[in-house]
Design goal:
The protein is an alpha/beta fold. The chain contains six helices and seven strands; from the N terminus they run ββαβαβαβααβαβ. The chain has one domain: Alpha-Beta Barrel (TIM Barrel). α3 packs parallel to α5. The protein is globular, with a radius of gyration of 16 Å.
Length: 195
């Protein structure tokens, strides 16, 4: 794992649980509104050794009972699944934040029951995804499959959109909301808009 930083205590990253937040290095998107620009390059220059993070988590359980993994984009990490397994063996609840671009890896993670909470960042209406992800060839099929995987899973999940009025308007937000279906076993089946 290429880990850029760790927030050793957070009350914001995992709903209802104090957690450690792990920020992975590297992202496959280039969103013009990104607030974690320093996490975009896939570099190991200032990375924290995975073993150091695991030792920290061992020392904090059960005072902390959850870990949030965000980025960057965690699903581009080749050894993400092995990392999740190591954290699960420590009895932590795990939240994964993703841009939804790697539905195959997400399916494997869900099939192995490696996470307990899922957050999916939806960047834009589908017809504007290339523009607002900064990737002209953004694969909308992957995004659609990720939405479907989240909604058919048995774990709590939420969808989020970062709303910058210079780039998105109310009509865009309504269109993004239309992609999400209601489901009685999901605690957050709505678009949470970050202003």
């Amino acid at each position: 794992m290429i880990i850029a930083s760790i927030d050793k205590f957070s009350l914001n990253e995992y709903p209802g649980k104090p957690c450690a937040a792990i920020f992975t290095q590297g992202c496959n998107y280039r969103c013009p509104f990104c607030y974690n620009n320093e996490l975009i390059p896939l570099t190991t220059e200032k990375s924290i050794p995975e073993s150091e993070v695991i030792e920290f988590l061992k020392s904090r359980y059960p005072r902390l009972d959850a870990v949030a993994i965000t980025g960057g984009e965690p699903t581009i990490q080749e050894d993400l699944i092995d990392f999740l397994l190591k954290i699960k063996q420590l009895n932590y609840s795990i939240k994964l934040s993703t841009n939804g671009s790697n539905s195959a890896k997400l399916k494997e993670i869900l099939d192995k029951k490696l996470i307990d909470y899922l957050q999916v960042d939806l960047k834009a209406p589908f017809h504007r995804y290339g523009e607002l992800s900064g990737i002209n060839h953004a694969d909308i099929t992957n995004i659609k499959q990720t939405i479907s995987l989240a909604e058919s899973s048995s774990i709590p999940h939420e969808f989020r959109t970062t709303f910058y009025r210079e780039l998105l308007n109310d009509k865009d937000i309504e269109e993004i909301k239309s992609y999400v279906k209601n489901s009685s076993h999901i605690i957050n089946d709505y678009i949470k808009v970050n202003y």
